[in-house]
Sequence to fold (367 residues):
Amino acid sequence: MRDEPAPPQLRDWFNEARYQQIAHDLATITDTFNAKVFLRHTIDGLADRSLLERVRRCATGIDVALSGTFRSKVAVLKELAPRIDHEFIAIFLADFVSAFGSNEPEFSMEALRFFTVFGSSEFAVRPFIVAAQSSALETMLSWTNDADEKVRRLASEGSRPRLPWGMRLPSLVRDPNPTAPILEALKSDDSLFVRRSVANHLNDVTKDHPDWVMERLEGWDLSDPKLSWIAKHACRTLIKRGHPRALALFGFGKKASVNAELTATPSALALGERLTLTASLFSTAKSAQRLAVDYVVHYVKANGSTAEKVFKWTELDLPAGGRSELAKSQVIRDFTTRKHYEGDHKVELQVNGQRVAEATFSLAKQK
Fold:
């Protein structure tokens, strides 16, 4: 089987051509910008830099190449912002504020609100929360009334305790209560973009305070589609872990009465090839059952031990005496977050939080 092409690395968005374009645009905005200094600062040693290093290098390059005060530099970047043709690239604007605006927090927070419309400020706002949590969250609460959905989303996304790739917020990991007013203000937002952030924020909190989240969700009117969607998405980690209150909230609280089989094919494969899982569920109950079906892969680690990861499969209603046949496939490939190792991998079928069947496959080196 042919390997599927590897996706491009995100860091390559910040390449030499990108820096040259930024330099050109800044030079057309102001004659106080030295393009040669900026390009030397950003391009020398570029190949060895990670994504976040390339973003920060862009910010520090602007600082050394653009004369003036912090506020005057931000004013120039506000002129630049509409010219950036990619929201991912535009995160360097907010990163500049994060890197150099700590002495002017109120001005910087307003700048982050402005720049998030062009490229999210969710990473850049976090040092300001760490430095002065109360005042930063007060400002972010005011953002929940902003006309722009990207600003409203920033209030929730920027204050997530465990934002992926972002600085962790230890105080909010310990105590999620300070962000509760933000989540409450946004839970019925008209924008799915915003509501998804609320759900992800709550999912972060479930990893440290599951009962705190459940107490709130159990008080929601889940007949409201907006609230129901947030609650379900917020509980995805708890459901995978078989958390009783989360399962019960969505009708999966009863232990499944099923006979189950799970098959993994091929039984032996190489990295880059496709694994297919097939499952059969036969109801042994006298009434219909609501089932949350997941599968658990026990990945072999470098030292030969294993670490499990739970994947969502499906949800279904299984009638009394009914049968359901399921299939799922995925290419086994390395990611930045997971490296695969040779050996026998166990896969388990999980239904309503209970492991009910298992299969194995053997992974070898890439052919």
The mean pLDDT is 95. The domain at 258-364 is CATH 2.60.40.10 (Immunoglobulin-like).
